[in-house]
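Q: What structure does this chain adopt?
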Amino acid sequence: MKLSELILAVGDENVAIQNLDVCADTLDYNVKSGTKIRFGTEVAMTMEGTEKLGLVVWLPRDKVKAALATQKREPSHE
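A:
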């Protein structure tokens, strides 16, 4: 299943994003082991894990920036 299909099935209203750049407690880079990111979240813990399932999705920064800029320029259709 593609990510877009999963989000469609779950429903946009049930999906939230959390930007790692904003919520990271520590960002460490090591040439041998790569990048390690420790972050905090407001999502509660349950006996089964976190209340909501978290996924890490990596997107090209330039394309996200362009998409957000386009969205701001276009009138809302809600």
